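Sat 14:20. Reprocessing the chain from the morning session after the first attempt stalled halfway. Input below, unchanged.
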Amino acid sequence: MEFLSVVNYDAKKGSVELRKLSKPLLTDADAVIMEVRNVGVCGSDLHQWTSSHSWPVNYPVVLGHEFSGVVHEVGSNVKNWKKGDRVVSETAAIIDMNNPLSKVGLYNLDPTRKGFGYGVNGAMTKYVCVPARCLHSIPDQLSFEIACLTEPCSVAYNAVVNNAAIKPGDRVIVIGPGTIGMLCGLVAQLCGAEVAIVGLDSDVARLQTAREYGLTAIVGDAGNWAKELDGMGVDCVIDTAGISITLQNAMNWVRPNGQIIKVGWGPQPMGFSLDPIVQKNVRLQGSFSHNWPVWEKVIRLLATGRLDVSKLIGGVWPLEEWEEAFLKMKNGEVIKSVLRPE
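Finished this time. Tokens:
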């Protein structure tokens, strides 16, 4: 039997289409077949669709790495999972367990890592094969629709909690009101920071959602907000934009001895000097992906409602309407689109 799948089949712009694919075979004894209930559309899915990405892709590949569902079939070596278990999956589909980083639990930084949706087939389909080590149990009170946002929430948690040093009372600017930017703002808010999120004129709907969460919404230049207290800038700038030039804004807005967390990817050359980082004694920290303990903490935050992501979901579309869901996000009409395989 074949199932509809959203497939990125070439590097050329617009090379995404619906295809019918067979249910994957469970050939790995340490894996499970997962039945997908909801899958979030990520900015990286959009970048592969528009061919504006900066990472290698194994074409053709089923898109989607933010997904929730139930265990459908269990490999012979899998002991802790059974059919019907409610789960979410991490993204590190292929890792080298003997890599030094994997051995200390930082498998997200393993250079050989390959993820769902670009390295191996992802979850914009009915069934996906998942290594059992990637699975996390989700409680009954956590809906599949919310649970599929565990992955981007984990990106934000890792950036804000593990890779930044944000303290209660800090002032933080987040560049970019997309999913990751909004979630970084919400996690920084949980840490006790005063948060402003910066977007463009086209981000009016997204910035209104930021206001509803109690974040300060700014269009364009955030320099006045950054320096309104003592003229020195903010304690931390979190750059989640998918372009390189925003790092220059971050350097202008951060205070001396502050920190910049770079989360967004951008293939463009920067074309400007990094001297302000030296002159201002600023810490520039990259943040990539997440690992097991981050997921467990995020699931608890979502299940208890302490991290409320409901306002970020702009709609749930059947898989057949993937293009509308993608366009809604690309055009800034919604922050997060969610797909539902039938």
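The chain is about 25% helix and 30% strand.
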